[in-house]
TrEMBL record:
This is EamA domain-containing protein. Its main location: membrane. It comes from Rhodosorus marinus. GO terms for cellular component: plasma membrane. Residues 205-348 form the EamA domain. It holds the Pfam family EamA. The chain crosses the membrane at residues 35-55, 75-92, 172-188, 208-225, 245-262, 274-295.
Length: 350
């Protein structure tokens, strides 16, 4: 059975390097992008922008949970959100329909569920590897350099797409240049220090950050293909979350049992610490994880990965706005210029 399903999955969801995606062809021919999908994708970096602020608030607690537990709790809340949404959808369908279904439809749904979990495992693995490698990179390099290197997804995605023959790189080149300028300005404290970003002098931390960007780019590209094949947005997003939770559970168990981090945390944590942590983890799981999982899957059903990556590059803009509202951080002039460049790149891309 497995020997049949795996080759079928590879054949059905292959990279198709010699063909342009149907969504890309349709968008290029009509010249009129799906505004609803663009709006949904544009909301993703807004949700992501609250992640750093929420984590900073979490780390300001007297006894914050260890990082692996934060990730695990995040994915647990995310999956719980999808399960609640699923139960609500199921109840509404039962209420609004007679509930009759044929055995053929039931069989087809079962077969498609297997494909969703295969796809969810692949996408979830990319995201888990990217986030885990990024955390390791932050131990060895500065946050600003890591942020810039990870955001090179806005360049990597259209470049890989162009190599695969899926998208004309020259069409999106001006947007890539503008987005890159904006990301660089956001990522350095002093524009005069741009020489420090010389890729020929990458240290281990910088190299890991670039490696993380590759996995994030693979997620965006593969999601563009899989979301056009598997049209049940909710099911694909939930399968991806289940994959992340399973992988994170194994990783957390191996990491914390070897270091004794759980025992130390439980010995010092107070009820107030747990209460504050729970509230923040709910926000992380619902707003920064579950919603983007669904929104990315829904939006990339009709928007090419190259355009989506430019929209995602607006995250530093929204992060600065969120930090200003919640943490009262100020906008330096370079951030304003960077924000204008990134927003212009997104408008030009669509």
């Amino acid at each position: 059975m497995i020997g049949f399903l795996v080759p079928s999955y590879v054949k059905y969801f292959g990279w198709q390097s010699l063909n342009v995606q149907k969504t890309t062809r349709r968008m290029l021919k009509t010249g009129s992008p799906d505004l609803k999908s663009i709006s949904i994708l544009a909301s993703v970096p807004v949700a992501w922008s609250t992640y750093n602020v929420a984590v900073r608030l979490l780390y300001s607690i007297d006894h914050p949970p260890p990082a692996p537990l934060i990730n695990l709790g995040n994915y647990l809340v995310s999956l719980a959100t999808f399960q609640i949404a699923f139960l609500v959808q199921f109840a509404l369908r039962k209420f609004s329909s007679s509930g009759q279904s044929s055995e053929v439809e039931s069989s087809a749904e079962h077969e498609s569920t297997i494909s969703y979990y295969y796809a969810g495992f692949e996408l979830g693995l990319y995201l888990f590897l990217g986030s885990t490698i990024q955390l390791e990179a932050l131990k060895l390099t500065t946050a600003s350099k890591a942020a810039f290197i990870v955001q090179t997804t806005s360049v990597l995605v259209p470049t890989i797409e162009a190599i695969l023959g899926r998208f004309p790189f020259k069409r999106i080149l001006p947007s890539v240049i503008l987005a890159s300028i904006g990301i660089i300005l956001f990522s350095v404290d002093d524009p005069k220090s741009l020489g420090a970003l010389d890729f020929s002098r990458l240290n281990l931390g910088d190299a890991l950050a670039l490696f993380a960007a590759v996995f994030y780019s693979l997620h965006v590209i593969r999601l563009g293909t899989l979301s056009t094949k598997l049209r049940k947005t909710f099911d694909l997003a939930r399968a991806k979350t289940i994959s992340q939770l399973c992988i994170a559970s194994i990783y957390t168990t191996l990491t914390l049992t070897s270091t004794g981090g759980v025992g130390e945390y439980l010995a010092n944590v107070t009820f107030n610490d747990l209460q504050a942590s729970a509230l923040i983890l709910i926000w992380l799981g619902v707003v920064t994880t579950a919603f983007p999982q669904w929104a990315q899957t829904r939006g990339q059903m009709s928007i090419p990965p190259s355009v989506a990556s430019i929209l995602y590059s607006t995250q530093p803009v929204w992060s600065s706005i969120t930090a200003f509202v919640v943490l009262s951080e100020q906008f330096p002039l370079k951030d304003i210029v960077a924000g204008v460049a990134i927003i212009s790149a997104s408008l030009l891309a669509i």
